[in-house]
Amino acid sequence: MFRLLKISSVNYSRLKTLESYVQNSVRSRLCSHCNALHVHTQFSYRFVHTNAVDKPPTGAKNIKAHVVVKKKRVRRTNAEMLAAGGFSSNQIKKEALNKGAHLATKNSPASLKKPKSKLTASQTNLEALHEIPDDPDLLLEHDLQYTNSGLETGSESSLLGPESEKKMSRRVLSEELKKQQEALIEQQEIARRTETVTKNLLCYLDVCVSCGFMNKGFSVLMHYTSKQNKHHKIGKLTNVALYNTLIHGYAAMGNIRQVSELMDIMKYSDVTPNAASFAGCFECAGRVGKTFQSEIQLKEWSRQMSKNNISMQSLFSSIKLLREQKEMILKACLIIDPRFEPQIPDVKYDYECSLIKNLNPFELANTKRVEQVMDAAELREKATKQLKLEKAGSVTVRSVEISSQPPEATNFYRAKLTDLQSKWKEVLEKSFFRNLQALKHVHYNNSKGMTVYPFLKVLNPDEYVNIMFKEVRKLAEGSETFSPSMHLLFKSVGEQVLSRYQVHTKLKTGVVENTEKVYNKYCEWFADNESAQVSNTRIKWQQLLAEHEDGSSVHVVDKTWSQPILIDIGKFLYNIIMQDILLDVHLLNESSKQGQEIPAFYSCFRFSGKIIREEIKPHPVLAKLFRLAALETLEFPTSLVPMVSPPLPWTSIQHGGHLITSTELVRLPHQAVTQWERMEASPVHQLYPSFDALNQLGSIPWKINEPMLDLVTEVFVSGGSAELDIPQSPPVDGGTSDPLPSGQAKEEKMDTFKQRLALRRHRAEQYSMWCDTLYRLSLANHYRKEVFWLPHNMDFRGRVYPCPPHLSHLGNDMARSILCFAKGEPLGKKGLDWLKIHVINLTGLKKRDAVADRLRYANDIMSDILDSADNPLNGRRWWVKSDEPWQTLAGCKEIANAIRSPNPEEYVCYMPIHQDGSCNGLQHYAALGRDAAGALSVNLAPAETPQDVYSCVVTLVENCRARDAANGLKIAQVLDGFIKRKVIKQTVMTTVYGVTRFGARLQIAKQLKDIDGFPKDLVFQASQYLVAKTFESLGEMFTSTKEIQDWLTDSARMISHIRGKKVEWVTPLGLPVVQPYIRDNVTTIVNPKATNLKYIQPKQAMDSHGRPNVMKQKNAFPPNFIHSLDSSHMMLTSLHCEQKGISFVSVHDCFWTHPSTVDAMNLICRQQFVALHSQPILEDLSKSLLKNFSYDDIGWALPEDNEKLNSLLRSVPSKGEFDLSKRQ
């Protein structure tokens, strides 16, 4: 089969010109069969065959020519043809017709039809046509550059010189590429819509099954998968999970007829069933029992399973099933094969990462995690308490706030508020029922569309009312100047409903009961100090699951809902709050007897940058009532507070953290699905290092430092202290300003307005910080007698964070001072010295002094340290001058207790000691580039005294300033005496993380503004000058850092711009990382007619189909890559400390441990840093980028860009001569 492209006669000399051009510019060869010139064009696997007859007689004006395009090829999609550099047959036809050619599609010349249009005399010669034989000599390389998109005929300017032909070819190529790009973007948009509809439909079908709306779910699925759904502009829904959801729903009912019908529909829809599909079928047959119909169906399903290479064993090994489901499936399997026995698959426990292969978990030493803290019985009680809290969903704590009003006034306002809340609760119940009934009518009368009705039936009505009731208080106590957008509020309420639904589902299916059984055994092992060698929490949990008959019923994947669904649920509930919660505006006026009810909340629009967003604000009367009432209790979701028992170990990307409350392993925006896909595709043992590091950090028990808590609380309730960074109490009236005085000039009014605006912002910031401190101190007071744990998760780069946001060690100075280890360790020989050094480190006074000098200084000022411990508020207050005053005071108290003990070496210390990195980002850059000078400045190389990179930069900048001042530069003269370490510290620290000159100027300007005596009118000019000098100094100190940064930045720019893909890599410990930055998408509504709140509308694309944001991708790659290395080093240190039985906690690059184990931890830290950077990190990154993003064929971009990208990804930056082994 061949497709013949006919070309009109052309001038003989011009044909020779073309032939010469082809020989010089296009790869070609002579045909051995016809002695004709065969030219390869950009059309992938197509060959242009030109054949000129012998030179015609003198005077002949025309020749005969033909072009044969080979048709024998594999059909591809437009996207595949574009990636291969070719175009579809329709595009070739269109291009040929546009240039005056006629395309004949028959097999032989005799069958060629004449064109419908009348041809000129010069277009009638169609002789000597023949086919190209299938000869290997005719097959040319398909990766040649595109040079000729077609032969232009019928025009005097059709065959020009080579340069003109090149320009024409590039123009044609650009036009074709543009069309292809537009087509591909349209395909991506359709794929995006399809994915969004699929996710929404999956959620909808799940809740339909949960609520028993099986027929409704079936009809909606048929609607979206039928041909009648063209108006949605979506692709074919082929996700097998859509059908599996209904299959398992009908299987639970024993409806074998409906299950069989769904399997038939899948067959006719070209949807291939998987193991989960057949598991549902077998479950249904097991429930029906051995009947004639079930046996026939089982035999048919068994044949289909064999055809799809699915065994009965895989029904048990590859799917998470409940115990009851397993029993039913086994019952069906025994009908087919009475001798069948399911085999439990072996679980792989060991690491495969080369960096930690030496850690055999079975040979770890006993860590005695809760020795002297609690016994097994106490821990079981704690486990029961934690499970009860998670079932309830919230924790109520007593507030530490003390009202400044007389008790009688406070009680009066509390009584008013209590009456109002009782009334609101009744209103919310009635309104919810009324609105739900209206939505129910729409749900049952609309047989095709998805509504939020099933999502509002998965819980009891009281739970929805309680969620709305809590939202009312949250809104009333919000900040005056800031409120979350309505979008975030809606989503937050939807997430609360989802969280309760997940817990209810686990209670309903018996998962909670099974979890409690296995977890109690885990607690016994956790508290048993004499337990055997296995001390890795992940391995122990995996073994318990394998031993327990209900173990598989514990790790059931939590149901999730898409963001459009969460938002629509929130809209429904917030609509009730906004319309039905009313307030008497004269409520606080005791003398008023006339009531006037108005909505308690109103919406307003506020600028957020260039975007106007809608916010919800409380009525001022309501906000004032809540402030005057000063409620005695605060309520927090269980997921936001510490756990009173050890967290579940992470064993997969879905399971870990809280016992039954869902905990996310990776903190990602909802649209960032690519990284989840990469992690799901990775073998689970590849992620073991990350899991075990999170488990180790979460296994450390904590307690409250009660003396410090009492002291901080005393300062807080007495009005706060700006000197000690404790926020002051907000005014009861909200800080209302007096009206502007009359008679002011326009400029004076503007100045007064700006001053009041600044004051208002300051008050709002103070109120926000006051609320944060109130929550932290109230929670700390609630847990003052408790031992608690902090479950951990991580961001997409691998940096770890404790899940509770309010009470954790990842906080400010005050937050860290009130926490200490629950398990103490004797100080030993050097523990007291490290306590003293730690206190001096916190003051920031001796950063460039040797450790011995810091210890000597601590002994010299011991009287001040003891005075601070004994009289913190009324003594000499030496601790107040510290950079970290509250932690310094906590250290002073611990030193005093140790010194005054009978034997300081036996004193049991609970206080953690910090070892902070020296500008950790620059350390990684210096190690990557083997930069000797840079390594010395960030303490990678041994030196007599510790180096301070910030002070080094200050010295270089000051030298430049002095030279410029001597040369008469005014701004350099003004800066004399003002260039301090603090001024440039943030800029130096963030330079490694990609801060721009604009951002750096703002950082320095902020520091200059805070310096008394510096002229404020010169802040802008001075900050510009210092930014330039700081960047120049860093370039001098770190020669390789800039080169590596530029390589990372350029690579990310070309990957995202030319390849149109997101940058991704794998950390040295095996964690896949994908940068989630994509362009903002316009809201897309699947059904334009469905504009009210009753219909679920997809609104945002998943990053799998979004175009990358080039600017964010390139700017974020260097810092994100360094952060991933930093997290890998922390995890390595964590795992090796756990092996040695060392308590280890981290705040990113700041490592904490007991005073007695500081030396051991420091050694491990250095060893693992060297081990990490002994790997070919940049070389491995280059190979990974080449594998994922390099060009093997011609794509969107022009060929020179392709080669430029490939060359860039191969060009690993050169390294210096620094010997990293000196680090050890």
UniProtKB/TrEMBL annotation:
PROSITE patterns: PPR, RNA_POL_PHAGE_1, RNA_POL_PHAGE_2
Record InterPro entries: DNA-dir_Rpol_C_phage-type (IPR046950), DNA-dir_Rpol_phage-type (IPR002092), DNA/RNA_pol_sf (IPR043502), PPR_rpt (IPR002885), RNA_POL_N_sf (IPR037159), RPOL_N (IPR029262), TPR-like_helical_dom_sf (IPR011990)
Pfam family name, one: RNA_pol
Keywords associated with the record: DNA-directed RNA polymerase, Nucleotidyltransferase, Transcription, Transferase, Transit peptide
Class in the EC hierarchy, top level: transferase
PPR repeats: 239-273
Residue ranges of every copy of the DNA-directed RNA polymerase N-terminal domain listed in the record: 384-699
Positions of the UniProt region annotated as Disordered: 726-748
Its EC number(s): 2.7.7.6
GO cellular component assignments: mitochondrial DNA-directed RNA polymerase complex
Tree of life domain: Eukaryota
GO terms (BP aspect): DNA biosynthetic process; mitochondrial transcription
Family assignment from sequence similarity: Belongs to the phage and mitochondrial RNA polymerase family.
Function: DNA-dependent RNA polymerase catalyzes the transcription of DNA into RNA using the four ribonucleoside triphosphates as substrates.
Protein name, UniProt field: DNA-directed RNA polymerase
Species annotation: Cloeon dipterum
Lineage: Eukaryota, Metazoa, Ecdysozoa, Arthropoda, Hexapoda
